Amino acid sequence: MSETKPTSIQQSAPSDDVYIVDLMALLRALWTRAWLIVAVALIFGSAGYGVTKLAVTPTYRTYFSIYINNSTLTGLTDVSSSDITASKYLAETGADIIGSTSIKKQVAEETGIAAEEIEISTSVNSDSGVLTVYIVTTDPETTYDCGAALLEVSSVEIARIIEGSSVQVIDTPELPSTYYRPNYIRNALIAMAVGVVLVCVIIIVRELLDDKVKSRDDFEERFPLVNLGSIPDITEAERRKSGYAAGYGYGAGGNKKQG
Question: Which of 75, 108, 191, 210 sits CB 3.0–4.6 Å from 44 for a disulfide?
Fold first, then answer.
């Protein structure tokens, strides 16, 4: 009893729906359609960049950083480890104060901007206890104004709420020179990746569902039968105007013989 070798896509038996997939055949299918993959990637990338440019409003960000000391004394040159440990807890408390609704409303009143348009976020350095505050709006000058107002308001409120503390300013807000969000290049690359994945999935699915016999080798691999012969493709020979078709009613130049 003879055995058949594995095929690219083969059904082993009518009662056993098991298919063997040839990865090389799938890779060849992707390679032969590389032009399509590149074209779809460019189209999706351009669309992603265009949609981001038209639909997303650019935002600008500035920041300032402060150090909250657990002493109201000024002019200190030495900071002990216990001061740093205490400042970490004070920085976390200060971050909660800065992120409160009341602080945002005060900044909005001083700058004339709606509180909903101001985005405030904080970050505490776990090693030094330095508190960094980020301000984001849709206008660079407004962002700077909100940062300066927030620094002034938060310094007063932190010193008022946390008794026995003082706020030391490390970095002050600066006028943003470029936009913070969106990232046009990143969005375009993400759209390109989505397009590439989508077209590759479609190509692979079409290849897996295609059960047509395309060549003599494909026939011999799919079916355990002996190939006795093949019929030449006359139409292909006519299209190429080769001398091969002369014996089937066409002259050597591709002209049909007259009876």
Answer: 191
The two tokens of residue 194 are 């989505």
Q: Is residue 67 within 8 Å of 79, Cβ to Cβ?
A: no
Let me know how long the chain is: 259
pTM exceeding 0.90: no
Distance between alpha carbon 71 and the CA centroid of its chain, in Å? 47
- Helix, strand, coil percent content, the chain, rounded in steps of 5: 50, 15, 30
- The DSSP result for 127-174, as a single string, is TT--EEEEEEESSHHHHHHHHHHHHHHHHHHHHHHSTT-EEEEEE---
Q: Which amino acid is at 113?
A: I
Q: Which tokens in the block code for residue 55?
A: 């639909």
Write out pLDDT tens, residues 171-220.
Answer: 999 999 888 888 899 999 999 999 999 999 999 888 888 766 666 666 66
